[in-house]
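Predict the holo structure. Ligand: pyridoxal-5'-phosphate.
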Amino acid sequence: MTEKKNINLTLDPENWESMRQLGHQMIDDLFDYWKGIREEKIWKPIPSEVKEFLDQPIPELGQDPETIYQEFKNNIFPYNKGNVHPRFFAWIQGTGTPLGVLADLLASGMNPNVAIGEHAAMYVDRQVVNWCKQLMNFPSDASGILVSGGSMANITALTVARNSFRDEKIRTIGLKSASAQLVLYCSVETHSCIQKAAEIIGLGTEAVRKIGVNESYEMKVEELEAQIQQDMQKGLLPFCIVGTSGTVNTGAIDPMDDLLAISKKYGLWFHVDGAYGALAKLDPKYAGPLKAIEEADSLAFDLHKWLYVPYEVGCTLIRDAKKHRDSFALTPNYLIQESRGLSGGLDSINNYGFELSRGFKALKIWMSLKEHGREKYAQMIAQNNRQAEYLAELVNGNPKLELMAPVSMSITCFRMIQPGYVESQLRELNREILLRLQEEGIASPSSTILNGKYTLRVANVNQRTRMEDMDLLVKEVLRIGTEIFESNN
Ligand SMILES: *Cc1c(COP(=O)(O)O)cnc(C)c1O
């Protein structure tokens, strides 16, 4: 007799009840965390013991879940990045919402692979993509796909743009089928993922023309058109213009109407990187300047930024669904679609993107949009924009502060100034202000360099921020700045 028939290993809990209790505890702890987050420090330095604890060899044997959770509570939970906090303004990072998190838990519990097959998640995914089209006023016969974020959304769109170039059969034959170098146009303020995407899809860095910007950091249209003409004269093949709806530095909006007109005039693909700011369309103030993105050939935008949905999720929309599908559709023998059964149902999502396995990221969007409705999101986005404008008013009203760029969308760039200080001293002063704001756990702006000048940068896609947080931020910048100045003199 062998022992074989008694060996039935599983990873399910030995004790379902205690795991259930642990799960309830986790949820309780999360709710306490969110409810009290405003009173907490936004950020804490990670002690060296914790870093050592997080640098151990792989466990050979298991330990009980309660102990693991305790380890999490001691070593991981307290040292969060802070973008759940009302005064997180670094980079462009969303806050998340409680229901969004619970939706992710449910999605993970159901654990469908949302690529192919006849199951409810496929229909939720399709509905969410349709809602994304409605949010952006794209035609109902456009196509789209949810991806991990803005970078993936941009490269997905640029792949379709490249493959759709004339009748060059680039998908089949590769770029060598094009008679000359394909050239892509964006601005010097365009997000780095566009250049990386151009490199990955085989265009190369040299095929990316970074057009200059005006004093509001918006692409200069005359320079764009002159560059296109010059490239054509050289026998190169201009094929795509990338406009940014909300640049990552200052929230600037490239002149969408002009970019659309130029792309039509020269027969180029018009792509909009709206990772941060396409959703600003919902704020009536920006609906006009962003109207033209409705006519873009493709649009990339993030839902983990300005829809406040937990990480990660972004969306690509493509006006011409056929071009989209023609760029990615491929059905190997192991993925044959049926008309019935589990392999029936909707077109495989893998026909619209590179990733095959996909989580049920649509659920958190589906639940969030149902919980709040489009109206509430429009108000929230407008609120962030008004908060940025209010911060700029506070800055303009104080002679010790200087606004460093026009406020566009929800980004405010400013710095403290000190009479007699040269540029390098101002840089040191503001850098030190920033680091102390973060280290004292007060607020987390980030920094950037604009026209060679170091500046604090407050980017706000935070659903927990209140106007009073802007007052506090200014007060603390002035307090810390004065302390630094006084200790230097
Ligand atoms: C954030 C951002 C990206 C990159 O998006 P990820 O979601 O971080 O991959 C691209 N473009 C702009 C304008 C952005 O703000």
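The chain has two domains: 112-359, 371-487. The mean pLDDT is 96.
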